[in-house]
Amino acid sequence: MKITRQITTILLGGVILGATGAGLGRAIAQELDAETKARVERFEKGPATIDVSKYPDAIKEYYELFSHKCSQCHKLSRPINSDYALPDEWSRYIKRMMYKPGSNISAADGKKVYEFLVYDSSIRKKAMVDDKLTKAKPEDKTTNESKIKELHDKYDAK
Ligand code: HEC
Question: Is the CB of 85 under 6 A from ligand 1?
């Protein structure tokens, strides 16, 4: 009886340690496949800051949050110079980052970072946004366009 309990404890301990170790290992080592590695290196070349001086005050504030939250594990230049520009792309990638162990990004923060990145892309990456919209399926084009418009309606001076 006693021995069985000890074995169970050891086995359980091993499972827990193993799981924690794997999670930590992933977060720290950031082992990436060759293609992803090449892509993120390409993204990281280029400016590490964004000139937000002409953006609305709320968007300036969200930029501070973005700079803080999105530079914890990699350079801020990675999202700044990435190929992602449409609302749906940002929504997918921000969620992906939020789910990473130790990301420390709340749902409310995620929404602000999303609003910043979509607003910024619509101005700084306008050519990329337009190109992606041209190539998108009609229904995706419409939803992405209305998400961008919604943000400008919300934040731009009337
Ligand atoms: C907990 C660590 C962590 C945080 C915090 C984090 N990232 Fe990342 N990010 C990663 C890792 C690891 C990768 C490598 C590729 C992957 O796993 O998606 C990555 C990759 C990326 C990529 C490139 C993805 C690709 O495959 O092309 C972008 C863009 C990005 N992050 C944006 C962001 C943004 C925006 C934020 C803030 C909301 C953020 N990251 C916060 C860990 C993090």
Answer: no
